[in-house]
Write a structure and sequence with these properties.
Blueprint (H helix, E strand, L loop, with lengths): L1 H6 L3 H14 L4 H17 L3
Helix pairs in contact: 2-3
């Protein structure tokens, strides 16, 4: 997620990164939960 934001801080890029992370470890429930929380936190900081 940090790399995705550094490369391009667009909503699409961040969403894409979170999907990729969850696909790599589909049964890692804690990882999936954390990625969702990070996405929500980043999204709440986005300027409209």
């Amino acid at each position: 997620m940090a790399v995705a934001v550094t490369e391009e801080a667009s909503d699409l890029n961040i969403a894409s990164a979170s999907i990729k992370i969850k696909k790599v470890r589909p049964i890692a429930v804690n990882l999936s939960w954390t990625v969702d929380r990070m996405f929500e936190a980043i999204d709440s900081l986005s300027i409209a």
